[in-house]
Amino acid sequence: MEKNLAKLEENWKDIKFEFTQHKQSEVYTIRLSDENFDLLENDTNLASSMQASRYIATFEKEVEHWTRILSQITEILTVSAEVQRTWAYLENLFLHSDEVKKELPVQAESFVKIDIEVKKILTDAYKKQYATVFCD
Q1: C-alpha distances in angstroms, 121 versus 64, 82, 110?
Q2: Which residues pair with 108 in a beta bridge?
Q3: Which of 25, 38, 49, 135 is deepest in the core (most CB within 10 A)?
Q4: In whole angstroms, what is the distance from residue 36 CA to residue 9 CA?
């Protein structure tokens, strides 16, 4: 268990998100590389199996920490992928289409607030870079 915890620490200390500039703006969308996403799945399974071990007592805090962190990374990546996809689509409608702004003024105004919040979160991710730092 001690070796597995050291392996998790070693694996995740340098893993950063991949960033893609959004429409030549100052905003960058986030994702994990396919290789790191596979590692996330494997390490999540490793942490879960350690948590199910009857020998967990000595390492319970560390195992709980890694189980929580890896779960948060998975959840944040899943949700952020959907949010980024939807936000990018709606941005074209509500910010760049005068016709939509005229037809749906309340929704367009509401989206402006959402747009600010999404950009703030993505900027925070870009500043922090590391998956474990941003997701903890």
Answers
A1: 26, 14, 17
A2: none
A3: 135
A4: 14
Query: Which residue type sits at 5?
Result: L
Q: Number of folded domains in the chain?
A: 1
pLDDT digits (tens, 9 = 90+) for 25-82: 999 999 999 999 999 999 999 999 999 999 899 999 999 999 999 999 999 999 999 9
Quickly tell me which residue has 């989206």 as its tokens. Answer: 111
Going by the DSSP 8-state scheme, the letter that residue 130 receives in this structure is B
Question: What DSSP designation does 18 have?
Answer: E
Q: Which amino acid is at 9?
A: E
Place of tokens 């070796």: 3
**CATH at 36:** 1.20.140.100
**H or E element, residue 83:** helix 60-96
Q: Which residue, among 94, 70, 80, has the nearest Cα to 27 in the 3D structure?
A: 80
Per DSSP, what are the bridge partners of residue 16? 130
DSSP-assigned letters across all residues of 19-79 = EEESTTSS-EEEE--HHHHHHHHHHHHHHHHHHT-TTGGGGHHHHHHHHHHHHHHHHHHHH
